[in-house]
Amino acid sequence: MMLNEVTAVPDAALPLAEFRDHLRLGTGFSDTGAEDVALSAYLRAALAAIEGRTAKALMARDFMLSLTEWRWGDMQTLPIAPVRAVAALRLIDGAGGEVIAPASGWRLVADMARPRLEARGAALPAIPTGGRVEIDFTAGFGPAWADLPVDLAQAVFLLAAQYYEFRHDGAGEGGALPFGVSALIERWRTVRMLGGRG
């Protein structure tokens, strides 16, 4: 399984002004442009960290999932939520030829914890021997920062602020999230089950 981010969150969608206010930074200085580049990088790093911990795409963008086999014949979970739409399901043979699987053979179940494709009949479309399936889909709460749930938006700000505050000494690095951030994202975390259909 390989998940690729096809489109990135556009710079214009990042809440730089709100983050600047959150940090209580002044405006009108000659280096504001350079500082905005750094603030944007901290916001993107915090977004990625929160998405990694929650398996949620915070801001809407396009993804492509590539699989060489279905996990179950009649159903396939998608690795990130919330999934807003599936644009295409492409079956690609070993020689690179591709066929679009008609949507009449599958449907999206847009579950917040485990979004999935389900077969409309007995099984999902057959993946060619030696080939793969590519699933194009859009995931995220919405295209604008205001579309994020308040607790997740606050978690991103808190984590990005830590990255900013400890930018020189490396104290913000490491695997552990600050307690406040962990508490804010806890309800969004997906519990992974082994052996089941989740």
UniProtKB/TrEMBL annotation:
Protein name: Gene transfer agent protein
InterPro entries: Phage_CHP
Organism from which the protein derives: Rhodobacter lacus
Highest taxon listed in the record's lineage: Bacteria
Classification of source organism: Bacteria, Pseudomonadati, Pseudomonadota, Alphaproteobacteria, Rhodobacterales
